[in-house]
TrEMBL record:
Keyword Transcription regulation part of the UniProt annotation: yes
CDD domains: S24_LexA-like
Region Disordered, residue ranges: 19-49
GO molecular function, one term: DNA binding
Taxonomic lineage from the root: Bacteria, Pseudomonadati, Pseudomonadota, Alphaproteobacteria, Hyphomicrobiales
Pfam families per the UniProt record, alphabetical: Peptidase_S24
PANTHER family the UniProt entry points to: FELS-1 PROPHAGE TRANSCRIPTIONAL REGULATOR, PTHR40661
Protein name: Helix-turn-helix transcriptional regulator
UniProt domain Peptidase S24/S26A/S26B/S26C: residue ranges: 95-215
SUPFAM superfamilies on file: LexA/Signal peptidase
Keywords, comma-separated and alphabetical: DNA-binding, Transcription, Transcription regulation
Length: 219
């Protein structure tokens, strides 16, 4: 039987599994960062507050998890069986590049997937079921305050992107940037800058070489 306590435990466990706090998980899912705070789990009069199914769907999408994996955390053992065959591989080495490398020729194919060899690698626990997932290391301060120099972004090329997603975009001119996708049409995209000191950008699709969704960040 589902209970208020187990549902919230599952969200806490999912955040911990992906090395985030509950507020970090909420932020990654595009929710108010306070959505999963313990103070929000009961109303002022003591009534239990439950997370919405929409919120749960968003955190699953943001972490690349399945509903089956989430249900593991609802088990009486608290999800200690998370290493079953259905779950993500414990660790997997994926390519790690800097943004400068990402802008250079020869490192990616036309779809934004890493091409060739010779990069550094990084272990990513949630990469087991993701084909083509790779990591980009932030360089500089253009993406502050959300991402800082040295942070690592895990991106998934080929994944469906939607309004509000954080994405990495490479232009045909070789420029690589992390932005928030605000609008996508048959003709172009509008991007919101993560750093208010840097301008928002708009591109015709003919100017975009590839776009990949950010699925995780080390922060």
């Amino acid at each position: 039987m589902l209970s208020h306590e187990r549902i919230w435990h599952a969200i806490d466990a999912l955040a911990e599994r992906h090395q985030m706090s509950p507020s970090g998980l909420a932020r990654r899912a595009g929710l108010d960062p306070t959505s999963f705070n313990k103070s929000k789990r009961q109303s002022a009069d003591g009534r239990e507050r439950w997370p919405s199914t929409e919120s749960i769907a968003k955190v699953l999408d943001a972490t690349g998890s399945t509903i089956g994996q989430f249900m593991e955390f609802l088990r009486p053992d608290g999800g200690k069986g998370y290493d079953s065959a259905e779950t993500l591989a414990p660790s997997s080495a994926i390519p790690l590049l800097g943004f400068a490398q990402a802008g250079a020729g020869g490192f990616f194919d036309d779809g934004g997937f890493p091409a060739g060899q010779g990069w550094d690698v990084v272990d990513f626990p949630a990469a087991g079921t993701k084909t083509g997932v790779y990591a980009l290391e932030i360089q500089g301060d253009s993406m502050q305050p959300l991402y800082r120099d040295g942070d690592v972004l895990i991106v998934e090329p080929g994944a469906q992107v939607r309004r509000g997603d954080r994405v990495v975009v490479k232009t045909t001119e070789g420029e690589v940037m992390a932005k928030v996708l605000m609008r996508q049409s048959a003709r172009g995209i509008d991007l919101h800058s993560l750093n208010p000191e840097h301008p928002n950008r708009s591109f015709d699709l003919s100017e975009v070489e590839w776009i990949a969704r950010i699925i995780w960040a080390s922060q």
